[in-house]
From TrEMBL:
The keyword Oxidoreductase applies. The keyword Transcription does not apply. The lineage of its organism: Bacteria, Bacillati, Bacillota, Bacilli, Lactobacillales. One of its GO terms (molecular function) is nucleotide binding. SUPFAM superfamilies: Glyceraldehyde-3-phosphate dehydrogenase-like, C-terminal domain (SSF55347), NAD(P)-binding Rossmann-fold domains (SSF51735). Residues 133-259 form the GFO/IDH/MocA-like oxidoreductase domain. Residues 4-120 form the Gfo/Idh/MocA-like oxidoreductase N-terminal domain. This is IolG. It holds the Pfam family GFO_IDH_MocA_C3. InterPro entries: Gfo/Idh/MocA-like_OxRdtase_N, GFO_IDH_MocA-like_dom, Myo_inos_IolG, NAD(P)-bd_dom_sf. It comes from Candidatus Enterococcus mansonii. GO terms for biological process: NADPH regeneration.
Amino acid sequence: MEKIKVGIVGLGRLGKVHAKNLAENVQGCELVAACSFVQEELAYAVAELGVKETYNEYEKMVESPSIDAVFIVSPSGFHCEQIKLAMENGKHVFSEKPIGLGIDEIKETQSVIQSYPDQVFMLGFMRRYDDSYQYAKQLVDNGELGELTLMRCYSIDPSSGMESFVKFAGASDSGGLFMDMSIHDIDLVRWFMKKEVRRVWAIGKNAAYPELDEVGELETGAAMMQLENQAMAILIAGRNCHHGYHVETELIGTKGMLRVAAVPEKNLVTVMNEQGVVRACSQDFPERFREAFVSEAKEFIDCIKEKRQPEVSAYDGLQSTKVALACKKSFETNELVTLEDE
Ligand code: NAI
């Protein structure tokens, strides 16, 4: 079978990870085109990844007959427009999370996606493709925990990335902590619980990094949620983790509980020395989710080849964004926010 030819837009913090995977680690596809505003990034794609076509304008790349599929890893505010344009040009589309920053633009994008049912659309909630989360999901779906009553989720970026984060946040609108970071946990809550979120209360504080105030971002935020069946979720998100990249999830059910990455270990090595018994910590998202990023890209390519749609849909994008926006509103108004049925 012919290889699926892919063009990528965005070669920043995450774009480079996806581009390398598509060029080297995912079978059945070829990374032929790349689009970025940054000339050095395009030069890297040509020299290191063997990309043949480079673009400064996304509109030109999606018109190229050389590509079958587009990988969108640009800043979040561009996703909706770029998804629609790719769909209208007959391309399969993988888009990073969040699908968009506003409900109206997402609904419009969702209807464009639905009008091209023969083209694959996938959203980058890569935690669903992580081995540990898949294992936990199987246990939960097999009823090992009984009925789920509560989830507790931590997603905290490393303090070492603060400088690059402030640059990222200053250069484009990330949607804020709940949209940019907690959205992964919101997706996990919906995925594990199979229920929608009904009410949220969110709070937050900047303490060590007042420069985050200037870019409208939060250092630490927390949200408490009630789902439609009265199950509960507690989300903690942040940008100031001194030991590394801390992503931890706890599920409590009527028959038992489980934790994914209760201690965010780098690997299985324990060092015993003058500092004591030391376990290194995973340092950033490319390291912790290295395999998950490969697995989700493989799934996207397999879906195109096998003419099927992936599990993560535009609807998941819409629902998770609604919850993230409710958290933002709750934080800004300091009120409990109820999500309406639509
Ligand atoms: P970044 O700021 O490091 O890189 C952005 C890239 O997009 C740059 O190459 C820039 O030249 C390019 N770009 C910006 N606007 C463009 C436009 N209009 N047309 C073409 N290229 C354009 O951003 P980063 O951190 O790589 O994030 C990108 C996306 O990935 C965001 O939506 C973010 O939410 C998502 N992300 C997801 C993660 C995950 O865990 N799944 C982790 C990090 C980011």
